[in-house]
Design a protein that fits this description.
Two copies of one chain form a homodimer. By secondary structure, chain A is an alpha/beta fold. The first copy, chain A, is built from 15 helices and twelve strands. A six-stranded parallel β-sheet of chain A has the order 2-1-3-4-5-11, with helices on both faces. A four-stranded parallel β-sheet of chain A has the order 7-6-8-9, with helices on both faces. In chain A, strand 8, helix 13 and strand 9 form a beta-alpha-beta unit. In chain A, helix 1 crosses helix 2, helix 1 crosses helix 3 and helix 6 packs parallel to helix 15. Chains A and B meet through helix 4, helix 5, helix 6, strand 2 and helix 7 of A and helix 4, helix 5, helix 6, strand 2 and helix 7 of B. Strand 2 of chain A pairs antiparallel with strand 2 of chain B. Chain A binds a DNA duplex (30 and 30 nucleotides) through helix 2 and helix 4.
Chain lengths: 349, 349
Amino acid sequence: MTLKTVAERVGVSSMTVSNAFSRPDQLSAALREKILAVAAELGYAGPDPAARTLARGATGTVGILLSPSLRYAFTDEFAAVFLIAITEELARSGLALTLLPPEGTGTVVPTRDVAMDGAIVYSCRLDADGLEQLHRRQLPLVHVDQPYDADAISVNVDDAAGARAAAQHLADVGHRHVGLLVVGHDDDPARAERSTQAERIRGWHDALDPAGVRTTIVAASAYDEDDGADAVRALLAAPDRPTALLCFSDARAAAAIRVAQEAGLSVPDDLSVVGFDDSPLARHTDPPLTTVRQDASAKGRLAAAALVEAIARRRTGATPEVSHVVLPTELVVRQSTAKPPAAKPPAGR
Amino acid sequence: MTLKTVAERVGVSSMTVSNAFSRPDQLSAALREKILAVAAELGYAGPDPAARTLARGATGTVGILLSPSLRYAFTDEFAAVFLIAITEELARSGLALTLLPPEGTGTVVPTRDVAMDGAIVYSCRLDADGLEQLHRRQLPLVHVDQPYDADAISVNVDDAAGARAAAQHLADVGHRHVGLLVVGHDDDPARAERSTQAERIRGWHDALDPAGVRTTIVAASAYDEDDGADAVRALLAAPDRPTALLCFSDARAAAAIRVAQEAGLSVPDDLSVVGFDDSPLARHTDPPLTTVRQDASAKGRLAAAALVEAIARRRTGATPEVSHVVLPTELVVRQSTAKPPAAKPPAGR
DNA sequence: CGCCCCCACTGTAGCGCTATAGAAACCGCT
DNA sequence: AGCGGTTTCTATAGCGCTACAGTGGGGGCG
């Protein structure tokens, strides 16, 4: 059941049948009608996408590499918003999005073996196998929340500035000891240097260190929520506990609030908690979360648009153009932060 | 830069180079090493996936059709868990997952034009264009949370039984008037007849009607959370308000709890609220949500496994086999339900 | 009436790879 | 030496489609 089958049945060339499906302006309406009718009658669903892909050199799909695992990328509601924005922007160009598992099964490796027109690389270890394969294929690529690379199209968020604003807010209201809740451990400092998390940590320190605020860093597993809870519990049980907590994400902050409350601490009276992202969740914690807003939708939309453009550019043979977008952040003060309990006078503004 | 380029450079046939990449056992280790070395030197990344797809007849990708829109499918945390399970199960077979926008742009229609080995159809209107295109392509298909179709491989959840258990629980503790919070309006009763939502509504009625419990149904927009909030507000403001609320999902239930609390009602003392799904959220509402658990991971895993099997069967030419899985549900009683306020004695068990 | 242009359609040559069958070399054994 | 059996590599023929460069005929225009 191919184009040719239909062509013979109608008595035209296969090229004409191809045109009936793919370039309607190339034949008369009457003939097109007839061809489509015969195709429907034969149960021919349209040109085989695989063959079309080979002949045209375009697949209609772009990939997204989420590392270290899809599970991790999805656990946060925030990621869902980002993905939705990407799919919607891509849909405008008729492109579908393929989720690429970062590792293959040995024989099959999606990042190497799946046909696609380009890919988005999201928050992904730079040394991931998948990333290297994508590069080797010379696909148009857009990096999102990746360490800066002058040669790569990128969409990033001004994490450092957001973190700085959040930390400054705590310093301003008088906190003198702040816990920093981060995930995972990046043992390779070179790689970590410009990762999202490193940027946020840097931002926090940028504001806290000059103000002479003491910091205690707590690293929790990126995969295991309970591990994070345990870490916070331990931190809060210490005799010399911080009066505020800066968290890597809203999800972590929400969990921290629960732990604090279970430990009998009031938020924000005994402990201030700050999140990051302003995910939908942040509005609904009790108390509502002070956090740093970033626009996940814009991030997704811009990343997708940049990729679409890069793909178009490649197709037309235009010179590739590298763009770097940095999105702003904004501190959103809600009710999870207040001055520290044994209220020293606020460090003068 | 093709297989042939590499072949000429090494001085072997292109078939041998192909084997070096795809069937290592077909040539000597030494030659393979040499070929791979030359390929790396030339910057050849491996066989072109598009061409390979055409020649082999397999793409390494399966699609998922989420309707009416990806946005809707993603808004619920629950969907994320389901998708993660699918991707992980597919990854075991080296397959990637492509998110298919249900509508194309006119010229490009992913459900018709994207190459894939099969597809999962999830919670999707039966009359969706995308669905029809997939059927026409005769792809192996697995239906999830779709109305029953004897000819289609399906994975479903026993929604009716779960709903029945939830409603029975309310009847048992003495509620005599229950609100039913659903989303959207399925105006075509034939189609709605066996949809997930219709099943749940049926289950609710199965338990409530015989017990003589009065019901008030409230339909909220599937897209707009605020609309749902308004509907609940109106319901609770009525002079003769229900003493309990059965909700289509945990997300809706959580929103309803907030609305009730804003209206000065205590949950569960003034109003009992029941969710559906037992999404992670349900544990963290205040009070924790009584809900009906379904196993999203199992649903995703089984759907993916069924699809992988159907694809394998088609490839080997075995006769297709239609399977229908129905997963159980389980009532999880937490703190969002209690006996109604003007405590009549519980309707005897 | 003749010229040219445009429309509607066709023929061919790939796109880059792999399946398949088969040739060549090599092995151990009688 | 001769033989089947294996291993290693090669030549060919597609996979199903589309780009591109035609061909021919009909119509507009001078």
